[in-house]
Design a protein that fits this description.
Elements lengths: L1 H4 L10 H34 L8 H50 L2 H6 L2 H47 L2 H13 L1 H33 L2 H6 L3 H26 L2 H23 L3 H42 L21 E9 L5 E10 L4 E5 L6 H6 L9 E6 L2 E2 L5 H6 L1 E4 L10 H6 L7 H10 L3 H6 L17 H15 L3 E5 L7 H14 L4 E5 L3 H5 L3 E6 L2 E6 L1 H7 L1 H13 L1
Parallel strand pairs: 3-8, 3-9, 6-7, 7-8
Antiparallel strand pairs: 1-2, 1-4, 4-5, 9-10
Helix pairs in contact: 2-3, 2-5, 2-11, 3-5, 5-6, 5-7, 5-11, 6-10, 7-9, 7-11, 10-11, 15-17, 20-21
The chain binds adenosine-5'-diphosphate (ADP) and magnesium ion.
Magnesium ion binds next to helix 12.
Length: about 575
């Protein structure tokens, strides 16, 4: 089993020095327990309780009395340093594991996040990483420390028995030690199944928790308070049941080992009676025997720790080894500034195998055209647009930019040439200034102000007491939908990319700002290749080309005048809009 952890011991490697110091202290503590304690008993008890011996001088008595604290000082200091160093190594290991996990989340394809819930990922990245850290450091520590202490006590038993009463006694006592291993094996088997289950249930609980926190409005609007509490309560119960199943077996281990060790002690007692063993020898041996069970118990719980760690490891590995499908090709082509000519060639795409969302779509979009995508909801417009920045790759067919397959271009270069404004833009919990800056980190304050002006955001930003230094709240919670969209547009202005994707980018605007934004958009789209999905046809009418989607296929292309006569679907969509307006 320990072999499964071997690849992860690389996390310990940078902490090698500290780890060695910890282990050395651990060995010292182990010897102080395994050998030091019984030796202390042997050294002091007979002298104190000896009948008819010459009385001890004050000096001798002091020395004798010092033995006991001395052993405990060595053991205590060594144990303290051992645990301190191990914790230090542990926190650094945890940091590294968590960082690797987080780094991986940044590059996983978007499709991954549709299959895995936030709560589950949170619990893997936090709880499972934590568990793996505990396991790794515990293994690294106990694997040396407990055997050292065990060997210390066995050496002591062997030495005493050899000098006092001969080999037979050694054999009797040593025979008891391996017996204690039996419960470890039995309990261990029961634990492995439970461990993974606990972590999975924990994911369920985290999931409900985080989902609830992101739906605070819905909970109140639909009076879901009781339902949510009940849902959380149920998940919580399931988790507790899984935890208790683990505890049931885990906690049985120490008593089982103690019972076996009690049997060992009584066996020794019987033997002592038979061979008329001296009382002090017996007490010394019992101490040694007892000292030897401590490390056996530790090794037993180490076994449990590994089972638990294995559960966490498997769950972490599912993420750490998940394929990153969207990466640079080995010979990826660099791209400075694209012209912006896009071509879709027989592109098909599906989110789930077998369910085509785009079916053999082909279309040419020359550089500098404003291209509107229209069609009923669910027709595949957003999906089509998302293929351009390679949020997803086509299942078949190919998309080219200036004649190069998107998959042959360096991903970072490709994305730098694209500005995406979505329906529900996300702002980071930071200042407005920093939220705009991410669009082009080298921009000056003046450029950011200009972009905000162009997106009609400057006025409302300036109205805040702290202006551009206003913190927007989690996901931009302190701003209205329209304000967020205007900041998202300001990002697009700032980015100034040759390709612009606007996916219902004006849907949250009120009619007043919509008119202003239309003007802004007219400026923004000049000279760019634009894919625009708009809910209002006022924007669409001015597009160079309009592509009409229906059920994952392109059913018509052309300009407004052409489509209005040629495409019944387009005409009905258009008329319905006009009627509504
Ligand atoms: N992440 C997803 N996973 C599975 N199916 C999806 C996903 N996103 C969209 N779909 C499905 O793909 C189809 C097209 O969706 P979309 O491109 O968003 O349509 P539109 O933007 O035209 O409204 C819809 O049937 C939708 O249910
Ligand atoms: Mg859409």
């Amino acid at each position: 089993m320990i072999r499964r952890f071997r690849p992860y011991f690389r996390y310990l490697r940078p902490q090698r020095g500290l780890l060695i110091a910890a282990i050395l202290c651990g060995i010292l503590a182990g010897i102080a327990s395994g050998f030091g304690l019984p030796y202390m008993v042997k050294k002091t008890f007979p002298a104190v309780f000896a009948v008819g011996a010459t009385p001890l001088s004050a000096w001798e008595l002091t020395l004798l009395a010092l033995w006991i604290p001395a052993v405990f000082v060595v053991r205590g200091v060594a144990t303290y340093l051992n645990t301190y160093f191990i914790q230090l190594v542990g926190t650094r290991v945890l940091e590294a594991i968590r960082l690797d996990f987080f780094r991986k989340l940044q590059v996983l394809p978007l499709s991954f996040f549709q299959k895995n819930s936030t709560g589950d990922l949170l619990s893997r990245g936090l709880a499972d990483a934590n568990q793996l850290q505990v396991t790794l450091t515990t293994i690294a520590n106990e694997i040396v420390r407990s055997p050292a202490s065990l060997i210390g006590s066995i050496v002591f038993i062997a030495w005493t028995a050899y000098t006092e009463k001969g080999v037979a006694l050694v054999l009797v006592i040593l025979a008891v030690v391996p017996l204690s291993v039996l419960p470890i094996r039995y309990v261990g088997k029961k634990l492995i199944k439970r461990a993974g289950q606990i972590q999975a249930e924990l994911g369920g609980v985290t999931n409900i928790f985080s989902e609830n926190l992101s739906a605070t409005k819905e909970v109140r609007a639909f009076s879901l308070e009781d339902r949510e509490v009940a849902r959380f309560g149920r998940a919580s119960q399931t988790l507790i049941r899984a935890q208790m199943k683990f505890v049931k077996y885990e906690k049985a281990l120490a008593p089982l080992i103690e019972i076996v060790s009690a049997a060992g002690i009584s066996l020794t007692l019987v033997y002592a009676y038979k061979v008329h063993l001296a009382q002090e020898t017996f007490i010394t041996l019992i101490t040694a025997l007892y000292a030897s069970y401590e490390p056996i118990k530790k090794l037993g719980s180490l076994n449990n720790e590994m089972k638990r760690g294995l559960g966490a490891l498997e769950r972490l590995e599912e993420i750490l080894t998940a394929p990153v499908s969207i990466v640079d090709a080995p010979d990826a082509r660099a791209l400075t500034r694209a012209h912006g000519a896009l071509s879709f060639e027989n592109v098909s795409f599906s989110y789930q195998p077998g369910e085509l969302v785009l079916n053999e779509v082909s279309v040419q979009i020359p550089a500098g055209t404003v291209c509107a995508l229209v069609g009923p909801s669910g027709a595949g417009k957003s999906t089509f647009a998302h293929l351009v920045p390679r949020f997803f790759d086509p299942v078949s067919g190919r998309i080219t930019l200036d004649g190069h397959d998107l998959r042959s271009l360096r991903l970072a270069d490709l994305r730098r040439n694209i500005a995406v404004v979505s329906q529900d833009p996300v702002l980071f919990n930071d200042t407005i200034y920093h939220n705009l800056l991410i669009a082009r980190p080298e921009s000056t304050r003046a450029e950011i102000g200009a972009a905000a002006r162009a997106a009609y955001a400057h006025d409302f930003v300036s109205a805040f007491p702290e202006g551009y230094d206003t913190i927007v709240g989690e996901r931009g919670a302190r701003l209205s939908g329209g304000q967020k969209q205007r900041l998202a547009l300001a990002r697009a202005f700032l980015r100034d990319a040759p390709i612009l994707i606007l996916d219902e980018a004006t849907s949250a605007l009120d009619s007043d700002s919509e008119a202003a934004i239309q003007l802004a958009l007219k400026k923004l789209v000049v000279g760019k290749t634009v894919l625009i999905i708009a809910h209002r046809f006022s924007t669409i009418r001015d597009a160079t080309t309009i592509i009409v989607f229906e059920a994952g296929e392109i059913v018509a292309t052309g300009n407004h005048a052409h489509l209005y006569t040629a495409s019944p679907l387009y005409r009905s969509l258009y008329d319905r809009q006009q009627g509504a307006a």
